[in-house]
Amino acid sequence: MQIYVTLYRWTEQGIKNVKESPARIKAAAKNVEALGGKLLGIYVTMGEYDLVAIYEAPNDEVVATALLAQGVLGNVRSTTLRAFTADQFAEIVKKLP
Asked: How many domains are there within the chain?
């Protein structure tokens, strides 16, 4: 499984309905699992981003599907990063000329 980090910002609609966020988070986690991934953690943050999610997924297509499903609801905008473990990074570096 690959690891992904998603940074979220609430939209105007999302912050207006912030009390519904815990239920939306649970629904998003179930959707990721239904697609073959797993939510490892989600954190409400202060600063430039409102939420940070860390999850595993088998491929980019699963991630794209999950993020589009969240996006069409209109409550968040997201930026997603593919993350590599230290061991994975070591293997990548070994391949450098």
From this structure: 1
Instruction: Answer whether 37's CB lies under 8 Å from 56's CB.
Output: yes
**Strand intervals (E) in the chain:** 2-10, 38-44, 51-57, 76-83
How many residues belong to the chain?
Answer: 97
Domain containing residue 23: CATH number: 3.30.70.920
| Helix/strand/coil for 38 | strand
Phi, psi of 90 (to 5 degrees): -60, -40
N-terminal to C-terminal alpha carbon distance within the chain:
27
Q: Which long-range contacts (CB under 8 A, 24 or more apart) does 86-94 make?
A: none
What pLDDT, in 10s, does the model give residues 5-27?
Answer: 999 999 999 999 999 999 999 99
Range of the domain at 86: 2-94
Please give the Cα distance from 35 to 37 (Å, whole number): 6
